[in-house]
Design brief:
Number of helices: 9
Number of domains: 1
Order of helices and strands: HHHHHHHHEEH
Shape: elongated
Helix content: over 70%
Structural class: mainly alpha
Distance between the termini: 23 Å
Radius of gyration: 22 Å
Strand content: 5-15%
Oligomer: single chain
Length: 246
């Protein structure tokens, strides 16, 4: 990967190619074009692939929801035979776990890509040692990236809600990857309290067992916000570089 202190000829060639291809000048190239040229990996194709997987999972959820509604209609029509009620309960139970599995898939696709983006940005503006030391000193990926972004005058080009979005994403990632789909009871209670105290109510939906928290799911709005945030970070890198290059 090209570092900012090294030769940037490959980036300049990339941007010039885009200008030639579009029949435009550099001023007409978007911040995203510049950001993608600076960071080099094909993040766009990665995000397209993630969206395809998420859409397939949503289709499966909708298919199961349709099946549940059909069972409910059959129960009403036939007077609630015991075997049909049992089938309905089993299907609802399966649906709860399926939604949790799809939520784990979403965070498992998005969080590593976000962490990769953070790391590549720091390596470009600084170096690998800065990224490694920052994660240790600031105790985690989010803290390290936010502080380094501030130090290099990048923070003002990043989304205003980046800290909230990133913290919710990575704390949920840690819970899911260490606790599985069905967390220990005390972890559920702690995370429910964390959601309330941090104002993450729009980020996660909740299933209950009795009156207690059971499963936490990323909401569709939060998934979309995470994906939009990814693009906005790339835009911010491009905006920062445009100023430097001018």
């Amino acid at each position: 990967m090209t570092e900012r202190g090294e030769s940037t000829s490959s980036i300049e060639e990339y941007l010039q190619h885009m200008c030639d291809d579009a029949g435009a000048g550099l001023e007409e190239i978007t911040d995203r074009d510049i950001g993608e040229g600076v960071l080099e990996p094909d993040f766009r194709s990665q995000l397209i692939a993630i969206r395809i997987v998420l859409e397939r999972n949503r289709d499966a959820e909708e298919k199961l929801t349709t099946e549940i509604r059909k069972i409910e209609a059959d129960i009403r029509e036939r007077g609630g035979d015991s075997w049909m009620v049992d089938h309905w309960v089993d299907t609802l139970h399966s649906s709860t776990f399926l939604d949790a599995a799809h939520s784990m898939a979403a965070v498992g696709l998005i969080a590593p890509l976000m962490e990769s983006l953070f790391g590549r940005i720091v390596r470009y503006f600084k170096n690998e040692k800065t990224w490694k030391d920052g994660r240790r000193k600031h105790r985690g990926v989010v803290n390290a990236f936010l502080q380094i972004a501030k130090d290099i005058d990048l923070r003002g080009h990043l989304p205003d809600d980046l800290e909230t979005t990133a913290r919710a994403l990575f704390e949920y990632r840690n819970k899911m990857f260490h606790g599985g789909l069905e967390w220990p009871e005390e972890d559920r209670t702690r995370f429910a309290n964390r959601v309330d105290s941090a104002g993450w109510g729009d980020c996660f939906s909740l299933a209950h067992s009795g009156n207690e928290p059971w499963f936490f799911y990323m909401t569709r709005d939060f998934v979309e916000r995470c994906l939009d945030t990814f693009y906005e970070i790339i835009d911010g890198v491009g905006a920062h570089e445009r100023i430097v290059r001018d």
